[in-house]
Amino acid sequence: MQFTQGLHRAVQQQPNAIAVACRDRRRTFRELHDRVARLAGGLRGLGIARGTRVCILSLNSDRYLESYLALAWLGAVVNPANFRWSAPEVIYSLNDSDSVALIVDDQFAAMIEPIKAGTPGLKQVIFAGDGAVPAGTVGYEALIDGSQPVADVGAGGDELFGVFYTGGTTGKPKGVMLSHRNVLSSGLDVLAEGALPEGVIGLHAAPMFHLADMMLTIGLLLRGGRHIVLPVFRPDLLLDVIEAEQVTDLLLVPAMLQAFVDFPASKARNLGSVRRIMYGASPASEALLDRTQALLPQVSLMQVYGMTEMSAVMTALPPADHVTRTANRLRSGGRASYHVQVRIVDEHDVEKPRGEVGEIIAKGPNVMIGYLNKPEATAEALKNGWMHTGDMGYMDDAGYVFIVDRLKDMIISGGENIYSVEVENAASKHPAVAAVAVIGIPDAAMGETVHAAVVLKPGASLTQDELYAHCKQHIAGYKCPRSLEIREALPVSGAGKVLKTELRKPFWEGRDRGVG
Amino acid sequence: MQFTQGLHRAVQQQPNAIAVACRDRRRTFRELHDRVARLAGGLRGLGIARGTRVCILSLNSDRYLESYLALAWLGAVVNPANFRWSAPEVIYSLNDSDSVALIVDDQFAAMIEPIKAGTPGLKQVIFAGDGAVPAGTVGYEALIDGSQPVADVGAGGDELFGVFYTGGTTGKPKGVMLSHRNVLSSGLDVLAEGALPEGVIGLHAAPMFHLADMMLTIGLLLRGGRHIVLPVFRPDLLLDVIEAEQVTDLLLVPAMLQAFVDFPASKARNLGSVRRIMYGASPASEALLDRTQALLPQVSLMQVYGMTEMSAVMTALPPADHVTRTANRLRSGGRASYHVQVRIVDEHDVEKPRGEVGEIIAKGPNVMIGYLNKPEATAEALKNGWMHTGDMGYMDDAGYVFIVDRLKDMIISGGENIYSVEVENAASKHPAVAAVAVIGIPDAAMGETVHAAVVLKPGASLTQDELYAHCKQHIAGYKCPRSLEIREALPVSGAGKVLKTELRKPFWEGRDRGVG
């Protein structure tokens, strides 16, 4: 399969249907096809060919979708930059991936010069914004207008589709190499799960650089659905676009779902067009799901658990489980989806009995080619032909996978394994706590002790003793926080995950934690 | 992906659910898994290893399913023999594929000795029947009982899964080499089309050796559904098993659908459990579909068009099109399914305008590796990386593909192209005609002329002049039959396709038709 095939199929079957809408721009599949073919022609004229790496640094837009398509059309390789990155981080990805061109929008125009200065290999900058085209860059619309369409080279299968930098939560970014087959197998699987059915109008609200949203991109392309693009996530803008475009399907990270559901104005709006919400990238609480169903009783919910290295999809918790709520399944990541095999294993890759915690490993057509320029990390991750996720979890008798912690976030205190997520669940029940992250900090006697970073609810207060006493009601004493820091906010990644590496940094400076 | 992964997934998620029922045997997924692991152990003891080719010659049974699974478990390669073949045809496939073992049931026990005599490379015969185990063969159940389970070797991806002989309608059989990826990509696609949903109880009524039924096998395995196995297709047996097992999903060739729907007893039975019918392998008439909906108003219908070389799935006509019946879409094979790209091209592979007839070509992860031992035929079929189906058709403005004829069945008379299917459609409207096949026969002046082979309805009669006059009302005179033969029956392949090669043989003996 090839990334562009959904576009070819859609233009064959429904050329005059609206393919994409963003801001005041709307294009049919025929128009999208034509623009992509000409953009590809223009990019080829700038020296971009099969295998060439190109970075995109942009907020969500229809041009982001076109750029993905045009690069795949040429067999070029995309490096979608996290738009929360600083210039040095973007520069790192450009140099590491040998990117020779950068597609950038207005929002990041100020970063062009610093990036150019730090990236000797960068040959071309294409400005995909709406403002005046900066000096030394090629205007995106002028490039399309001035170029002839070229034929799709037919890149696909095991060919490299993109390099997706990950690892914000665990240190130095790693470039995950994904083939066309990788991302399309997950996309087809999502359709097999019943997501994004015929007639879907899907909203890109999560960042398009992130692989979670890539599943929406590919799923919509394969199904021939409509892409609605929200440049920046903000609850009020989300409400406007849902109503205006009659959006049927949302893909959100829990932090976005929460912002949407708890936004006061949401209740007053007509959200009846929304039929399905996919969420993932981090767990959602049952309370949040309850509030979601209260606001949107007609909506069916599906959770997807995965990671960039698995092309985003590993397990799925289907809508039925959100309705029946059997046992504690809502707290699981679901069961192995159709295209993958999932196991829980010990450190020797031997399968653990059901209910026992081990590392989650998986195998399937969606498993990455490897980490770019990191043969050792690749060999370690893909040991015995299975992706070693670094997530610790257990599986129940019906195959539901419960993630208890990141292997690297697990705290070892006095020889005991403490799963930070379990402590966080206990701490978050305290009425003063708005958000909490738990980490291990160095301790001469115990190795590590449990430390909590807490964001308080407005006007609330909390002491270490109060937090400890509260947690003690829910979990064993050795798991309860021994120290507390009150923060304005927790540092989060582009995908909404708490960056525990950042929280640990002041405590571990100059020390080796062993597990990163 | 690997063929066995659906079994692993099902045993992980629902070990105690019924996996398969056949005759008086019922097994859970755990039992099926255990039997397959021990059968694989037994087969390994008989010398069957990764890459070894093994033939299965059997009616449908649970053991057929187990054999498919155990061979894939070992990384062995299956050669499922058409059970309508004569011994020489089975021998041809065994020798051509280098099969060293044969799994055979009671029905074909009499063929064992002739097959052995004609196949010097055959080392082992496993008797998977219920009767007494013939001398010189290994008993299937004893093999399972006496063997230790072995681990799945993890064969998958581009590894060879099976050699499927095809070409009954066009001469010498060709061994189509299909990888695990090939068959599983079509299986996953079928789920993406919405077929075989959660809770499915699917019936193997079509022959399990045929790749059409393989889609049911893989679809059910991936979804974790129940396999009900009907050893032999007969309408009365079909009705019994639907009622007894509460079958939800059927996959039938149109000849079977017709036999089922027109069977007088069908109306008196409780068929309310049936929710979906997939049909394909050859076109179904609108009248037959009407009768199907009259008998089973609750059923949704889906057509799949494909061929062995495409792992059975190329286009799909979804249930919605059977309800809306827009334009003449019921007469099409549907539109490109999600995993494939489909085009209509001229003899230089240049895409034809919509509505114009050309060869149907396709590309996708389901396209065969090639024809075994036939590099020239492979190169011709896979020219420019696309599968050249040999089917002539056109595409409408919404991407629906209408098959007008096999390239090889097209008649060229006085320089005009005549599509046999068009003539058959006209002829079949005559009240005396029960079935009709139209072929080209040699003619000194015209090259070929149109000849009709007709099966009459009981008590009816038909003359050549009557048939010509009738057809003339529907199609141009040069397309109307110039000669007529009345037959008791038409020769058909295992998949229910009329064997035009057989019909042409007496006319073309000793001559070269050019197109086979």
Map the helices and strands:
The structure is a homodimer of 516-residue chains.
Chain A (H helix, E strand, L loop, with lengths): L4 H9 L4 E5 L2 E4 H17 L7 E5 L4 H13 L2 E4 L6 H10 L2 E6 L7 H7 L5 E4 L10 E2 H6 L14 E7 L7 E6 H13 L8 E4 L6 H13 L2 E4 L5 H11 L3 E4 L1 H8 L14 E5 L5 H10 L4 E6 L9 E3 L1 H6 L10 E2 L4 E5 L12 E6 L6 E2 L3 H7 L5 E9 L5 E6 L4 E3 L2 E3 L1 H8 L5 E11 L3 E10 L7 H9 L10 E5 L12 H9 L8
Parallel strand pairs in A: 1-11, 3-4, 3-5, 5-6, 6-7, 10-11, 10-12, 12-13, 13-14, 25-26
Antiparallel strand pairs in A: 1-2, 8-9, 9-19, 14-15, 15-16, 17-18, 18-20, 20-21, 22-23, 24-25
How is this structure best summarized?
The structure is a homodimer of 516-residue chains. By secondary structure, chain A is an alpha/beta fold.
CATH architecture of the domain at 410-508 in chain A: 2-Layer Sandwich
CATH superfamily of the domain at 410-508 in chain A: ANL, C-terminal domain
The residue fraction in helices of chain A comes out at 25-40%
**Beta-strand proportion of chain A:** 25-35%
How many runs of DSSP E, i.e. beta strands of chain A?
26
Major sheet characteristics of chain A = 9 strands, mixed
Helix/strand-derived category of chain A reads: alpha/beta
How many DSSP H or I helices of chain A? 16
Spans of chain A of at least 5 consecutive residues whose pLDDT stays below 50 are none
CATH fold topology of the domain at 410-508 in chain A:
GMP Synthetase, Chain A, domain 3
Multimeric state: homodimer
CATH class of the domain at 410-508 in chain A: Alpha Beta
Outline of chain A: globular
End-to-end distance of chain A? 37 Å
Kindly report the spatial arrangement of strands forming the biggest sheet of chain A. Answer: 2-1-11-10-12-13-14-15-16
Give the chain pair forming the largest contact, with residue counts: A-B, 36 and 36 residues
What Rg of chain A do the Cα atoms give? 23 Å
Average pLDDT, all residues of chain A: 93
